[in-house]
Amino acid sequence: MIEINDLTKIYHTAHQDIVALDKVSLSIKRGEIFGIIGLSGAGKSTLIRCINMLEKPSQGSIIVDGQDITALNKNQLYLARQKIGMIFQQFNLLSSRNIFDNIMFPLEIARMPAKQARNRVNELLEMVGLVDKARVYPDQLSGGQKQRVGIARALANDPKLLLSDEATSALDPQTTRSILKLLKDINSQLNLTILLITHDMNVIKQVCDRVAVINDSHIEEVGDVLSIFTNPGTPTSQSFINNIINKGDPGEYAHNVINKHEDKHHCLIRVSFIGSSAGEPVISSMIKKFDVDANILYGNIDRVKEVPFGNLILELIGTEASVTQSMAYLMTNGLEIEVLK
Amino acid sequence: MIGHIGAFMANTFWLENSWMVEKVAIATWETLYMVVISTALSYVFGLPLGVILVTTADGHVLESRGLNRVLGVIINAARSIPFIIFLILVIPFTRLVVGTSIGTVASMVPLTLAAIPFVARLVETSLKEIEWGLIEAALSMGANAWQVVSKVLIPEALPSIILGVAITTINLVGYSAMAGIVGGGGLGTLAYYYGYQRYENLIMWVTVIVLIIFVQIIQTLGDKMVANTINKRR
């Protein structure tokens, strides 16, 4: 759906050139929800704006649905943009128009006949659940409602692609969930490709199929969300994940362990698990099989796209042989083990 | 008895000064007419100029550095000439357009010309208040420059533009009095001939009071219109 090749954007200022994007290449498939995560200033905002040419790339090409968007003339670009919806962090609704007319706006731009346009607006109001707000002005709506209007407006001209520029960053967690759910529903109902940028790993976790991590004007890592979550390849990805998944601080627990069982061998380990093994009673069968005690000091289970994953910090107590055998048993059952102490 | 004397005195006052009432009424009408038409004409030219000033700025929808600079310099130059001098400078042009440089219609030429650059700057300020995000949203939908101006910039800035109209009108009331001194008609001429040259203090004070009422009404109207637009949106 989108092929980005060697995209470079340099801002020229009076004193220096600032490289906002440095040879970025990405490939986004039709119908997927693709997330780009990065800190502010990483270049994600520039990247999403290059895709509809709100920012003009300095170099590189962007193919959207077979069309090189960087090579279009003005009128072709106007038409291409009508087929790329965009939603914004600050919603950007017109305060001079009521909700109905706000959704009508892109249809006016596309010069759709008025009667047809009014029918389309009514459909969209129904889709986002705001039929009763048609005659109300944006100032009277909550943030979540405003974003629903933004979504309806972005979908008015039946786009093939929806760009989401931090669309939930100004919303509370509950509203964020409902907006993300709406995006997910739209994605599956309309087979609409969604490209979103965010600084919040929760957003990636809740809706994205694949994710790219952008840092310092580069794409550092691309992959499906589950594999980045369970096996982050770069410190940037790791720190985004740590923000939302608490892995437990081994130092806190190690302190309790030392010298408590002088007569027995003991070992502090972190067990990480993904997918099916999370559902099986591996730990309890280990305890029965090898005559060890397992003391659970910390535990966390999360889900990405219905796949459970998580980690435990365990203290294993037993003979040296039984502890070693226990760890081997856990590994053969598909768990990852890290010896902490 | 006292009431009778009062009525008699008021009556005498009326008889003695009825010429004045008539003069003031005519002059007020002339001023109103001059100011309203000059304001309207100055917006016919000033509004597009303000739009051009904003949209030709760097990074805007009609970016054109050269045009923007040239226009800026011309507007600043026009605005730096004091009105009383401007009034005299444009006399040849006024004669060309109206055929005379004296009277109400002739005054509208310098009034309009002086107000155009002022209006352009006021409109520019109003339009610059619009958040870039709104323009970006319109562009993302495929809007062209004209659609951005007509569907986003002007409707969104309307309350601020209306306040600008009130400010312009009030300014032109003041300017029209100055034009009155060189035979422009209206309250200015009246105050100058009768008040200043003939020492008719009363007529001067009446003129001043009429002008005060004028300004109050214009500002109140402007505020009311803005309040109505904004309340509708809340």
Number of separate helices of chain A? 12
Using the alpha-carbon principal axes, give the shape of chain B: elongated
As an assembly, this protein is heterodimer
Strand order of the largest sheet of chain A: 6-7-8-3-9-10
Number of strand elements of chain A: 14
- CATH fold name of the largest domain in chain A, please? Rossmann fold
CATH top level assignment of chain B:
Mainly Alpha
Indicate the proportion of strand residues of chain B: under 5%
Overall pLDDT of chain B: 90
Overall number of domains of chain B: 1
Strand content of chain A: 25-35%
Gross CATH architecture of the largest domain in chain A: 3-Layer(aba) Sandwich
Helix/strand-derived category of chain B reads mainly alpha
CATH superfamily (homologous) name of chain B: MetI-like
Structural class of chain A: alpha/beta
CATH level-four homologous superfamily name of the largest domain in chain A: P-loop containing nucleotide triphosphate hydrolases
Q: Biggest interface in this structure?
A: A-B, 31 and 21 residues
Distance between the termini of chain A: 49 Å
SSE topology string of chain A = EEEHEEHEHHHEHEHEEHHHEHEEHE
Can you tell me about this structure?
The complex is a heterodimer of chains A (341) and B (234). By secondary structure, chain A is of the alpha/beta class. Chain A has twelve helices and 14 strands. Chain A has helices at 44-51, 74-82, 99-109, 114-127, 143-155, 173-190, 201-207, 225-230, 235-244, 250-257, 282-290, 320-332, and strands spanning 2-12, 17-28, 33-37, 59-64, 67-68, 84-88, 161-165, 193-198, 210-215, 218-224, 265-274, 293-304, 307-318, 336-339. In chain A, the strands form three sheets. A six-stranded mixed β-sheet of chain A has the order 6-7-8-3-9-10, with helices on both faces. A four-stranded antiparallel β-sheet of chain A has the order 2-1-4-5, covered by helices on one side. In chain A, strands 12-13-11-14 form a four-stranded antiparallel β-sheet. Chain B has 234 residues and is mainly alpha-helical. Chain B has a single domain (22-233), classed as Orthogonal Bundle (MetI-like fold), CATH 1.10.3720.10. Chain B has helices spanning 2-55, 65-80, 83-89, 91-98, 104-128, 132-140, 145-181, 186-197, 201-233. The longest helix of chain B is centred in the N-terminal third of the chain and has 54 residues, at 2-55. The interface between A and B is medium-sized, with 31 and 21 residues.
